[in-house]
Amino acid sequence: MAKNECELAIKAALEILKEKCGGITEKVSLGGIEIEIPEEIVKIKHSNPMTVQEKIDAIAHSTWARHWAEGLLKFATGRAPTEEEIERLSRRLAEKVVGS
Predict the structure, then answer these.
(1) pLDDT-derived band at 2, boundaries 50, 70, 90
(2) CA–CA distance from 42 to each of 14, 28, 60 (Å)?
(3) Residue 29's pLDDT is what?
(4) Could you tell me the residue ranges of all domains in the chain?
(5) Which end of the chain is more exposed for a tag (fewer CB within 10 A), N or C?
(6) pLDDT (tens digit, 9 = 90+) per residue, 19-61?
(7) What residues does 22 pair with on adjacent strands?
């Protein structure tokens, strides 16, 4: 199967599993922490009309990625993170999601 066909098959399988089993999501590992990816982010990840860079940008700017980044940074440093730190970690998380 071609890569695009495989992606479509995986997307279809996830939709069927979600419909039959409910709540099936994907996960990504960031620094040894398993993070569940919400449905709206999974849809961006598997969106065919978007380029890889567009997917990374969309996910990095999502509320989900920014909240995870801010929470992990607060936990790790014990202080409020800077906007630059949040942006850098949310982009790293987005890259991991798109690459997984």
Answers:
(1) low
(2) 10, 11, 13
(3) 83
(4) 26-99
(5) N
(6) 665 555 788 887 777 888 988 899 999 988 999 999 999 999 9
(7) none
Q: Which residues contact 52 (CB under 8 A, 6 or more apart)?
A: 98
* DSSP state for residue 37 in the 8-state scheme: E
Q: What is the length of the chain?
A: 100
Q: What is the pTM (predicted TM-score) of this model?
A: 0.72
H or E stretch covering 60 = helix 52-60
Amino acid at 19: E
Q: Which two tokens stand for residue 7?
A: 């992606």
- Torsion on CA atoms 83, 84, 89, 91, rounded to nearest 10: 100
Q: Which two tokens stand for residue 98?
A: 């798109």
